[in-house]
Amino acid sequence: MLKYLIAVALFGLVHAQFQSGIVYLFDPTGKSQVTGNVTFTKTPNGIHVEGVVQGLAPGLHGFHVHDLGNIVGGCTATSGHFNPHKKTHGAPEDSIRHVGDLGNIVADQSGVAKIDIVDNVIALNGQNGIIGRGVVVHEKADDLGKGGNKDSLITGNAGGRVACGVIGVICREIFIAFWTTRIYNLNRFDIVRYNGLI
Ligand SMILES: [Cu+2]
Ligand SMILES: [Zn+2]
Predict the structure, then answer these.
(1) Superfamily name and number for 14-177
(2) Nearest-CA neighbor of 107 among 136, 76, 135, 139?
(3) What is the pLDDT of residues 97-137, one digit of tens each?
(4) Residue 66 annotated among the catalytic residues of the structure
(5) How far is the CA of 164 from the centre of ligand 1 (A)?
(6) What reactions does this protein catalyze (predicted)?
(7) β-sheet bridge partners, residue 39
(8) What pLDDT, in 10s, does the model give residues 15-26?
(9) Contact, 79 vs 92, CB < 8 A?
């Protein structure tokens, strides 16, 4: 005789959070010899951007996250600067900037730029998430929105695109949450009544 029916309702939520990403930089058209490797790692202080770009002309080069992770046919396919909040171009430390505005990288006399910065605006998840988007290294310096002309507030007048790549995932963490576990104890009468309703 069935005296009790125990039903356990278990709901689970699984979601993944990106922890780190990587981009390999090169010129898909083969015109420049610029190459690089940059990682983006979540830390308590922001996203740590670290890497090396080589084959550059000595000096400053604009360095941005662009909207699209498309490099088919060349770096122009990455479109404009990643700008989900529809702001104007600026410096990394400005409150008004594109999310993708990471400023300039500096190449030494041998054409090598070492990157080691922490940025609090870009993110790996959510609205400012950069995973799957493009990174572009420019021919010229980014004027950080202070060039005094219209383009300065769009592109920073950083000129051509000498290398680009798509930010891929290195590591992700999976969170699993469970909630609502219920146990129903039903007597025989309840079961009969329940069956009667079907
Ligand atoms: Cu750019
Ligand atoms: Zn910008």
Answers:
(1) Superoxide dismutase, copper/zinc binding domain (2.60.40.200)
(2) 139
(3) 999 999 999 999 999 999 999 999 999 999 999 999 999 99
(4) yes
(5) 9
(6) 2 superoxide + 2 H(+) = H2O2 + O2
(7) 22, 50
(8) 789 999 999 999
(9) no
